[in-house]
């Protein structure tokens, strides 16, 4: 069984309409119970009358404050505790002004009224709090009444009968409130479990789709290369074949890196390409400047395809630059290699230039006007193959 705690927001939301209705009902009942018919009818019984009037005014003030809190959707908070002590003390004082033979009659109006007042103050507390308050109220009344020397012999039985209504009805309402909270807690737990299952299913579908997208490109490019090497229609000693193998290996590493959890997926995949080039003995200088949002996976692939291919075929030296501005994100590579870069896709523009043995490749993506998550404002690294 799932209990409702104050921190369980889902259960609170589920139970709110029912609990608010119960709270309004308790306030209305307490107001009707306080109609001073018994107090007026027995005014000549009390000695002194002022204590009874003060007790009635205190309980009426509690009901009035509760009505205001209901309108403002507020609770009593910590203020409830001193008020509880005050109303209990007032009930005992009021009981002492009633003749013992009148203690179980309508003259003891506060005996029934105090139970509803206590329920107002403890409405959002667990059931043991309300049960404890009613027990203290009933026990204190019994001790005062039975302990009086002039009390009638059957006053204990009369007090027990009076307690069925004075304490039983507030306790039954408290039980109903606890039941609503318990059912709401179970409903919230079931809702969370169902939502978790739906989320896991959606994540699994998305991961499967992303995995299919990643390997669809490899099927078209890497599979023919592997098949050619297997059936010996491609010569591993051919520089063109070696260059194609280097490009496919770099692409595989980058695609595998897409599944890593990292704050900046773009830089993470670029560093994988740099690491691959360094393992081949290429000296790579890498720079990253500016800020940019995380591009979608399809855009990242198009943005890195041509620059990483140029890096994968670099012979001895390469420089990689990632630059983010307000509306443009670019990845460029200058390397001493020869590669035919792919054309752009997904809104990515690819430009190339060659100067003797140096190839310059740049891929540019126009950033859409969405809130950007910052990347490192400026990083510069220069690493050599000997340090890898």
Note down, in words, how this protein is organized.
The protein is an alpha+beta fold and 388 residues long. It folds into two domains: 9-192, no CATH class; 264-387, Histidine kinase-like ATPase, C-terminal domain (Heat Shock Protein 90, 2-Layer Sandwich), CATH 3.30.565.10. 59% of the residues lie in helices and 12% in strands. It has eleven helices and six strands. A six-stranded mixed sheet has the order 4-5-3-2-1-6, with helices on one face. Strand 2 (317-324) and strand 3 form a beta hairpin. Helix 4 (80-96) packs parallel to helix 6 (127-146). 29% of the residues are buried. Mean pLDDT is 78; it is low at 1-8 and 371-388.
Structural class estimated from helices and strands: alpha+beta
**Average predicted confidence as pLDDT:** 78
Give the strand content.
5-15%
Count, helices: 11
The stretches of 5 or more residues where confidence is low (pLDDT under 50) are 1-8, 371-388
| Total discrete domains | 2
**Helicity level, as a percent range?**
55-70%
The end-to-end span amounts to 57 Å
Summarize the structure.
The chain has 388 residues and is an alpha+beta fold.
Per-chain topology:
Elements: H1 9-33, H2 37-41, H3 49-71, H4 80-96, H5 109-121, H6 127-146, H7 155-166, H8 168-230, H9 239-257, H10 265-279, E1 283-290, H11 297-312, E2 317-324, E3 328-335, E4 348-355, E5 358-366, E6 378-383
Parallel strand pairs: 1-2
Antiparallel strand pairs: 1-6, 2-3, 3-5, 4-5
Features:
single chain, 388 residues, alpha+beta, Heat Shock Protein 90, 2 domains, 6-stranded mixed β-sheet, disordered C terminus
